[in-house]
Amino acid sequence: MPSLKDLRNRIASVKATQKITKAMQMVAAAKLRRAQEAAEAARPYSERMGSVLANITQAVGGGGDAPALMTGTGRDDVHLLVVCTAERGLCGGFNSQIARHARDHIRRLLADGKQVKIICVGKKGFDILRRDYASMIIERVDLREVKTLGFVNADAIARKVIHLFNEGAFDVCTLFYSQFKSVISQIPTAQQIIPAASASSAQPESADGASAVYEYEPEPGEILSDLIPRNIAVQIFRALLENAAGEMGAKMSAMDNATRNAGEMINKLSITYNRQRQAQITKELIEIISGAEAL
Amino acid sequence: MAEAFKFELVSPERLLVSAEVESVVIPGAEGEMTVMAHHAPVMTTIKPGVVTVKSASGSEERYVVFGGFADIVPAGCTLLAESAVAVKDVDRADLARRIQEAKEDANDAKDDQARSKAEQFLGQLTTLEGAILPA
Predict the structure, then answer these.
(1) Is a pLDDT exceeding 50 seen at residue A43?
(2) 3-class DSSP state of B135
(3) What percent of chain A has pLDDT over 70?
(4) Do A49 and B80 touch (CB under 8 A)?
(5) Is B75's CB within 8 Å of A213's CB?
(6) Contact yes or no for A236/A175 (Cβ under 8 A)
(7) Using one digit for the tens of pLDDT, what is the confidence trace for B53-78?
(8) A74 pLDDT higher than 80
(9) Which of A85, A87, A233, B96 is least crowded, fewest Cβ atoms below 10 Å from its Cβ?
(10) What does DSSP assign to residue A204?
(11) A120 an active-site residue?
(12) What does the alpha-carbon distance between residue A295 and residue A70 come to, in Å, rounded to a whole number?
């Protein structure tokens, strides 16, 4: 049985922890709002990019001059996985969810006899994947210093990916991130970015836009070869933004849980504390009374 | 008074302009072009330069863009810029950094084609710097 002093200390420490988790929850809530705003602000760009891309793909008509980034190398022996996770922990199952999704994918690929290379964005994913697949990790992008995610960050990653592709280091590139659905639900997602899988699914701009015959300046093929790398950067950027929002959402609910747990624990501990104090008082009283009776 | 049309300037981070405007000057890859209402559909890449937006109310605003492309239809014009800022907010240090990077790219280029491309880009950047310095 812990002494009264031990219990008092214990209660004080749980209270301190509760204060911290409460503060972290509030910080996460504030950051979540900002991350969500950023994600929303970035949406028009990627939407328009999608429709323009669909238009131009139609114009080029899948002819022979479509760049390799879009059509792929024609093989799928070497897979590159870009795994985006958070830089910090304390956000529930957020990071492990993405890592697990990536790991399942890696296992499947390895079972099929494919070669796998990994680029880790974010420290946490690196820490998790390093345990099993350290030899496959070829690059690690650290965004810890970055305060507000900018397009330049995504662009740098995209450049690395494209550079590797041009060197023939891989055939298929898949992006792993967590889709932000709501504060309590983030869905780990895999998205193939090279070769562009979405080219056929994206609908060309309807109504007045698509029916018009476009003039291209310079040639459509040239624009396309300029556009595709940019599109990859945009997709990575979107993934990073979704991740940032998801991380904050997950952190918020994790910290909310922790705060509630701490509250419950304090209640339980105070009851034990009070009970024990009462027992001690009763014991002292009995001692006094029995002492007086003995006289 | 010319007819107004819809113009949107979008960067990956946010939507900068979405307004009814009278004319827009775009630094196209094949030369500057002025877009007004009922322009023939054109899609063009843009080089680093200044976009001048003349709004329907007559006021004029200038933005610096670093590459991107423009999608022009008779009903409107959408400019997707890789990075865009209003001229008055341009960060000199940032521009200097970009020029420095472009210089390094030009030096590191492996073949002639890549080098001439990098040098062209560098040239565009320096022209841009010259264009906005007095502003």
Answers:
(1) yes
(2) coil
(3) 92
(4) yes
(5) no
(6) yes
(7) 988 888 888 888 888 888 888 888 88
(8) no
(9) B96
(10) P
(11) no
(12) 101
